[in-house]
Design a protein that fits this description.
It is built from 8 helices and 11 strands. The protein is an alpha/beta fold and 235 residues long. Helix 2 crosses helix 3.
């Protein structure tokens, strides 16, 4: 193959979790948030059904498959363009993901899932060209996600630290066994926060000391949060 063609193809693809997941470079490329969120999902029963809300180009879902293939994944997004990107990324990794073109805030369904994950639009700003969510009502977003979670099922999310109170307030109404893990960058204050709860469960909250956002065992080596915390002796 021509060297320049090979280099161009290489630059069109980037990888996550130490090269285990390949992604086509596009309008919106997943950040480390996707890797962290996927790693935060606990071990589920065989053939568990997961809903990825605002699936975008598929970063979270595909990273989940790097931890286990023994799950079914459905992704919902209101952007047809993002779903088209997700379909290509799933094919690139030979993964099957059911895709639904709908808005979680208005989606009408009785279907529930063993786990719901979401990297929500927690930022404010000008709407993107690909018509993804911006400036969403996070309280309603979380409420709709939790409504799609089976009793005793898991709701998992990642948000910027300044939006934490909105998420916790809504989770407290519906969830127990809440786990909170802050992520720190260069500052002494958390930049992101991972949150997980079980719907309909009545139990306390665990708040961990936190990890650096560039923590290589998760981002490079592909460890789950549970495995990482066990290695550190935290659990």
């Amino acid at each position: 193959m021509n060297y320049y063609i090979a280099m161009a193809q290489k630059q069109e693809i980037f990888t996550l979790v130490g090269g285990r997941i390949k992604m086509l470079r596009g309008t919106y490329n997943p950040t480390s948030d996707a890797v962290w969120l996927a790693a935060f999902l606990p071990k589920l029963k065989p053939n568990a059904h997961i809903l990825d809300v605002g699936i975008g180009s598929g970063g979270v879902s595909l990273c989940i498959t790097s931890h286990t293939d023994n799950v079914q994944i459905t992704g919902i997004d209101k952007s047809a363009e993002m779903l088209a990107c997700c379909k290509k990324n799933a094919e690139l990794n030979t993964k099957d993901i059911e895709l639904i073109n709908a808005d979680i805030l208005t989606w009408r369904t009785s279907q529930t899932f063993d786990a719901v994950v979401t990297n929500p639009p927690y930022f404010h700003g000008t709407p993107a060209k690909h018509n993804a969510h911006h400036n969403a009502n996070l309280t309603m977003w979380v409420r709709r996600c939790i409504a799609r979670t089976k009793p005793r099922g898991y709701f998992c999310t990642i948000v910027s630290a300044d939006r934490l109170s909105e998420i916790v307030a809504e989770m407290n109404t519906h969830c127990g066994d809440i786990t909170i893990l802050p992520l720190f960058g260069a500052k002494k204050t958390a930049e992101r926060v991972l949150l997980r709860g079980r719907v309909g469960v009545k139990s306390g909250t665990i708040l961990y000391a936190g990890l650096p956002m560039n923590y290589e065992p998760v981002l490079r080596d592909g460890l789950t949060i549970e495995d990482s915390l066990a290695t550190l002796g935290w659990i």
